[in-house]
Amino acid sequence: MNMPSTLPRTHAIFLERVRDAVEADDRLSALLIGGSYIHGGLDEHSDLDFVIVVNGENYGEVMSSRMDFARALPDFITAFTGEHVGEPRLLICLYGPPLLHVDLKFVLAADLDQSIERRAVLFAREPAAMETRMLAAEVNWPNLPSEWFEARAWIWLHYAATKFARGELYEAISMLGFFREQVLGPLLYRRAGLNQRGVRRLEAMGLDAQNRLAATVARHDASSVKEAIEASIAIYLDLRSDDPSLVATKAMPALLRDFIEQAGSRNRAEHQ
After folding, report:
1. What angle do CA 3, 7, 9 make, to 5 degrees?
2. pLDDT tens across 2-24, in order?
3. What is the C-alpha separation between 156 and 74, in angstroms, rounded?
């Protein structure tokens, strides 16, 4: 594991607070940590991604009172649950000052047998058993196949184009950001032989060395939005070519480019 040799002071203090709170609560059996703590790159702007292992007989009680656990930690500001990312076990919290984003996920020991990352054990009532369980866990990052991207890319880009055609530029700009996060960023990671991670740390890792994604960031201006959609098409086609076995969607991108040109012509005519 690529664990940090040193932690920013704020992170180190908070980690100790969470570890002490877990150790003091007999309903909890272990504290794990993932994210940049194990992947590398943890700095003063990083989140802390904790996983708290709950005894089976106490799970219902802990889940119903987990907000109390978060509030009891010093410098609590606010928190909400993670249904929006499909993870109701998760509390997304803010502490400070200084401000610190903290994720607290409450799980059963059996939930650790399959994971997207091999987390570090910060505390366990039975350390040897927990380390053995973590080493035996099936770890699979949720990388997506080329077909997943191809099935969605043209629908999402067409959606952006329809908003451009209607003059709903904020909607189009929002969809282009979503497209970068869901398609272009992951494919740039794939090109580098890395696990797909949206657009996180693309600049720091040099994954877009030619700064091509900048062309997909539009201003609130019709011509800028049109150019950003066209740039998104071009970059996707280039990244898609990394998998020559992919069956391309029929009539794309020709139909979409025709649609964009027609919409642009109408927009110009309306403003003359």
Report:
1. 165
2. 556 688 999 999 999 999 999 99
3. 43
Asked whether the whole model's pTM tops 0.85, one would answer yes
Q: How far apart are the first and last CA of the chain?
A: 61
Percent of the chain beyond pLDDT 90? 86
Domain around 257: 146-270
Please choose, from the candidates 50, 48, 51, the residue with its C-alpha nearest in 3D space to the C-alpha of residue 11: 48
Instruction: State residue 25 phi and psi, 5-degree precision.
Output: -105, 110
Distance CA(55)–CA(130), nearest Å, equals 13
Positive or negative: CA dihedral 199, 182, 222, 240: positive
Q: Give the DSSP letter of residue 137.
A: S
Q: Say whether both 176 and 230 belong to one domain.
A: yes
Residue 15 covered by a domain = yes
- Tokens 């740390």, located at residue: 201
CATH number, position 116: 3.30.460.10
User: Which positions ≥6 away from 201 have C-beta within 8 Å?
Assistant: 41
